[in-house]
Specification:
five-stranded mixed beta sheet; alpha+beta; 54% helix; single chain
Length: 323
Amino acid sequence: MSDKNDGANRDATKRSARERLQAERERQKTRDKRRRTLIVAAAVVGVLGLATVVGVIAANTGKDSSAKGGPVVAPSGATGKDALAIQTGKPEARSTLTVWEDFRCPACKAFEDNYRDTIHELEAKGLLKVDYHLVTLIDGNMGGSGSLKGANAAACAQDAGKFTEYHDVLFQNQPEEVDDAYGKNAKLLELAAKVDGLDTPAFRACVEEGTHNSWVAKSQEAFREGNFRGTPTVLLDGKDIFSDQANPLTPQKLKEQVEAAAKGSGGAGGAKGTAKTSPSASASASATSSASGSRGDGKSSPSASRTAAEGTARSSTGGSSGD
């Protein structure tokens, strides 16, 4: 009887061990399954997270100061192909000066300071009209958004019929190239106070909302597609008159060419080499024309811009030097 009990106990013990082992195996399977589930879930979350990051990167790639989002809203009276030019002067003027400019570009300021008075004089006489194209090269080269926001503000001034005055104020008060002061709307609004009647609720809303940002971006795209070498790019009746090193432009030469065109005796090249200018004026024009504050190859050239500005200061033509 005792042997039977011992055998039953051993069998029970074996069954209990097998059952415990089986239960442990089931628990292990459950743990493994849970672990695999967690690993898969973590992988899914990781992939989704990576996709989100990639999406953000993709969304921001190229989303520089061009701010291409939103509809393209051209400023009032914009003209030319795709309405990308702001024209000043009288439409019937025989000669057309095409200027591609960036409000952060030092060489553009040098050009404006040296030629501003001559351009306004020719416009007032009805001899010249100017098509201004606003670009954002310095934003791309140096970072920031001052080129974009400055151009948008100038377009807002065009809506208010105050483009010329505000355009001149922006160049006369241009900050250092590395200073993105025009990237702040407050600065642009502060300068608007220098133009009588410009600082209105409508102008402020236009500046703060970036109404013409996409239009400016489209202008920059046109500049890039035009393969221009840098800013400023200056064309008289379609001919590049500003980068000719053999015949450097001066305000006097510009005046003579425009006056000759008005008389029907010549065009952009009609006064080649005939202008009488002082050596200092010629040197100034040469320095200005050879400098480019922002080159078409995407490289900024502050030193060249400074050379242009210094040459302008020495000019005998007496261009405005700014406030």
